Amino acid sequence: MKKYMSFALGAFGHDAFYNTLSLYFVMFVTSQLFTTSDAGFNTRMIGYVTLLMTVIRITEIMFDPMIGGVVDNTNTRWGKFKPWLLAGTIVASLMLILIFTNFGGLAISQPMLYLVLFAIAFLILDVFYSFSDIALWSMLPALSMDSKERTKFGTFSRFGSTLGAQSVIIVIVPLVTLFSGMFGAHHGEQNAMGWLGYAIVIGLLASLGAIFLARNVKEDKNLIRDNVEHTRFRDVFKVIGSNDQLMWLALSYFLFAFSYVINNSLLLYYFRYVLGHAEAYSYIGIITCILGVISVATFPSLASKISRKFVYIGGIGVMFIGFIIFAFAGQNLFLALLAASVIFFPYPMIFLSTLMTISDLVEYGQLKSGKRNEAVTLSVRPLIDKLAGAFSNGIVGIVAIGAGMTGNVKPSDISASGLFQFKSFMFYIPMVLLIISAVIFLWKVTLTEEKHADVVRELRKKLGDKSAD
User: What's the rounded Cα separation, in Å, for the pair 75 and 67?
Assistant: First the structure.
C-alpha cells in the first residue's frame, strides 16, 4: 500500500504540472502577457509564442523514443528510472515558473529577445519534462510481471493523476485571484503576479511528489527483466515500428487524446467568453474530482468483466454523448456542466486501458524481437499525449484570436461567426476523431489480458530453456 500511495502522490503532482502547461499557459499568454493598447502587437506576439510552443513540442516529441532509450540504458544503484524522474521534474518545474513571467519586462520592451529566451526556456522545460514523464510511466512494467498487479499500480497512479489534473481546475481561478489580490489587483480581478504565484505552487507540488515516489517505490528483479540486451539509439524507432500492436494502439490513442485535449483546452474559454461565468469553471474541477475517483475505482472490476478493449470503446461512446449535449448547451450553465461531466467520466478508464495495454506490449515486443524495451515502449504514450497537447496549444491560440476571445472582452462581443468557429473546434471535429479512434481500436488492437498471459508464459519457457543450455 505504501508503494501504491507513493506512486499516486508522484502522479498527482505530475499531472497537475501537465494540465497547467497544456491547458492554462496559453490562457496566461492571451489574457495577461500581451495586453498593451496595440492590438496588432498583441495578436502577433500571441501568435509567435503559440507557434514557438507548437514547433518546439512537436520537434522535441520526435526525440522521446531516444529519451526512452537513454532511460532504458541507465544503470545506477537507484535503478534506471528514479534519477531521471527527479532531475526531470525539478528542472522542468523551475522552467515552468520562469515562463509564467514576462522575463523582467522583455516581453513588451524587447519582444524579439523575449521570444529567443522563451524558446530556450520552453525547450529545456519540454526536454526535462519528457525525461520525468517517460521515467514515471515506464516504471509500471518494471514493478510486476502480472497484469493484475500492474492494474493495481496503474489504478492507484491514475487515481493520483486524476486528482492532480482535476484539482488544478478547482484551484486555478481561486489561487490566481488570491495571489493577484496580494499583488495589487482589485477584488475578483487577475494579474500576471497571480499567475506566477499559481505556477510556483504547481512546481512545488510536482517536485515534492517526485521525491516522495523515488523514496518509496522500487523496481522488481526477475528473470525476464534481467535478460536484457540494450537497444542502440539508432534502433529505437525500429523497436517501435516492428511492434504492430503498439503502432495501431498509438494511432487510436492519438485521435482520442487530441479530441479530448482540444475540448478541455477550450473549456475555460467557453466558461469565460461564451457563458460569461469564469468563476463557475471551478465547479468542473469539483465534479470531475468526484467522478474521477469513481471512474478509477470502477476500472479494475469493469475491465475484468468486459475486458480493457470494451472499456476503451464503451468509454468513447459515453464521451460522444457528452459532446452532443455540449453542442446544444448554448449558454445554459447546467447543460454545460453536465456535458463536461459526461465527457470526463470515462476518460480515466480509457487512459488506464491504454496504459495497461502498452505495459503488456513490453513483453509482446520482447517475445517478437528478443529485446526488452520498457522505457522505449512506454515512451509512446506520453509522446502521444504531448503531441496532442502541442497541436492543441497551437490550435487554441489560433481559435482564441479568430473567435475574438482575448483580453477582457465580454460574451456579447463575440460574433456569430466567431462562435461557430469556436464550437467547430471544441465539439464537432473532436466527435469525428472519437469515432475513428474507436473503429481502429476495435479492429486492430488484439492483445488481450489472456493473450498477454500466454506471452509471459512463452517468455519464461524460452528464457528457462536458454538458462538450461
Answer: 14
Nearest residue to 41 (alpha-carbon basis) of 114, 116, 121: 114
**Contact (CB, 8 A) for 295 and 347:** yes
Residue 436 corresponds to which cell in the numbers above? 475513428
Cell 485521435, located at residue: 255
Domains of the chain and any CATH numbers: 2-217+231-468 (1.20.1250.20)
Question: How far is the C-alpha of 403 from the C-alpha of 409, rounded, in Å?
Answer: 11
If we measure between CA atoms, which residue out of 15, 52, 99 comes closest to residue 397?
52
- Whole-number pLDDT of residue 469: 39
pLDDT of residue 93: 96
DSSP 34: S
CA-wise closest residue to 144 among 66, 219, 252: 219
Please give the residue that has the higher pLDDT: either 221 or 416. Answer: 416
Number of Cβ within a 10 Å radius of residue 469 = 5
The confidence score (pLDDT) of residue 223 equals 52
Q: What is the pLDDT of residues 141-163, one digit of tens each?
A: 777 666 677 777 778 888 888 88
Whether residue 175 contacts residue 183, with contact meaning beta carbons closer than 8 Å, is answered with: no
Let me know: does 102 contact 108? Beta carbons within 8 Å: yes
Rg value, the chain, Cα: 22
User: pTM (2 decimals)?
Assistant: 0.72
pLDDT band at residue 224 under the 50/70/90 scheme: low
